[in-house]
Amino acid sequence: MGRPRVALDNHHAVYDYYRHHEQSMAFARFAGSVLARVYRPTITCDDGAEEAISAALARGARVVISPNHTTADDQYVIVAMAQRLPALRGIRGRAFIPAEPSLFSRSGLGGKILRRSVDGLGAIPTFRLEDLRRRGIEITDEIQATYQEAILRASEIQVAKLIDGHSMAGFWEGTRNRTCYAEVQPLRKGIAHTAIAASEKVEVVLLPCAFSYGGEPDDYQRPVLPERHEPIVHVAHPIPVQTTDPDALVALLHPEIQRCVDVVMGTPAAAAAA
């Protein structure tokens, strides 16, 4: 099956394709190595966190990497983090991340190369109404109904891939934080529903973490090249998904992401806890 056109009105074909699409393990490892060299993240972990991650993966748990979201480069830093952190190397080539549709639909040779690259890194298109509004599209009742169908199908695909053995990364804030980078925005419940649904069949753990690029990060449109902004990453202990209540899961996760943000931002509270 050829790569489908990624657009809301073609979401049935899009998710039929990504339900069965598998990354190239060789490409995933190559790309992880390249991105680790480009971004050069400095990674710290809570005491015992690496051992807990390794133990969870050894048990067959699916890991849902759950960072804050401030720049367009965060998804690539996740790939670099999985390359640099030994405990996460086992998920390379077996993990996916919801991504904005524009990454899959750019024109020209550059767009084709980008599409193949993000496919190789495990990206799955996720439609958002805010993206349509930015393009000046009026949200009619018909578009709203199509959007609801698309997000339900996307969630079904994500649950199925978790059950099949993939791990996942997701931005629970839903959109980039463009205002106060030191404060995690309210978390949306979409990924909570996905994690809970998958946990009915397999073990799922959430992995809180945080990124900082130093100071106030720009709204980057191009990769953060070396010697410009090198990310600082902190990783917490994995949180087992042991509830069927999305609100309860969000309530567990939000303070842990915030604590990781405090660490990478170097807040006094984080320094006192260290």
Name of the CATH homologous superfamily: Glycerol-3-phosphate (1)-acyltransferase
* CATH-defined architecture: 3-Layer(aba) Sandwich
The rounded Rg comes to: 18 Å
Unreliable sequence segments: none
How much helix is in the residues? 40-55%
Describe this structure in words.
Helices cover 46% and strands 13% of the residues. The chain has 274 residues and is an alpha/beta fold. The protein has one domain: Glycerol-3-phosphate (1)-acyltransferase. Strands 1, 2, 3, 4, 5, 6, 7 and 8 form an 8-stranded mixed beta sheet that branches. β3, α5 and β4 form a beta-alpha-beta unit. α2 packs across α4 and α8 crosses α9. The model has no long low-confidence stretch (mean pLDDT 91).
Task: Describe the secondary-structure layout.
Elements: H1 11-20, H2 25-39, E1 42-45, H3 49-58, E2 62-66, H4 74-84, E3 95-99, H5 108-120, E4 123-125, H6 129-134, H7 141-164, E5 167-169, H8 190-199, E6 204-212, E7 232-235, E8 239-240, H9 246-265, H10 268-273
Parallel strand pairs: 1-7, 2-5, 2-6, 3-4, 3-5
Antiparallel strand pairs: 6-7, 6-8
Question: What descriptive keywords fit this protein?
Answer:
Glycerol-3-phosphate (1)-acyltransferase; eight-stranded mixed beta sheet; 8 strands; 274 residues; alpha/beta
